[in-house]
Design goal:
It holds the Pfam family EMP24_GP25L. Belongs to the EMP24/GP25L family. By secondary structure, this protein is mainly α. The chain contains one helix and no strands.
Length: about 80
């Protein structure tokens, strides 16, 4: 009986060790995946900021061009 109990405890320790290794592997995998996703998010954010600045510049340029075009179009031309 004592030998059976010792073997049962030994089996439980082995199972716990195996499960702990599995948890460590899973944790390592999740950490690597998290680092990769963080990199993707940072890259995407940088691209969005860049394109937003480009769009804002184009929009402001078009507004100034339209204003000057409309002013020239509706300008009263005086003939003496």
């Amino acid at each position: 009986t004592k030998i059976e109990q010792a073997r049962a405890v030994e089996d439980m320790v082995y199972e716990l060790n195996t499960n702990l290794d599995t948890v460590k592997d899973t944790q390592s995998y999740m950490k690597a995946k998290s680092v990769y996703h963080h990199s993707v998010v940072d890259s995407t954010n940088s691209r969005i900021v860049l394109w937003s600045c480009i769009e804002a510049t184009i929009l402001v340029s078009l507004v100034f061009w339209q204003m000057s075009y409309l002013r020239r179009t509706f300008e009263v031309r005086r003939v003496f």
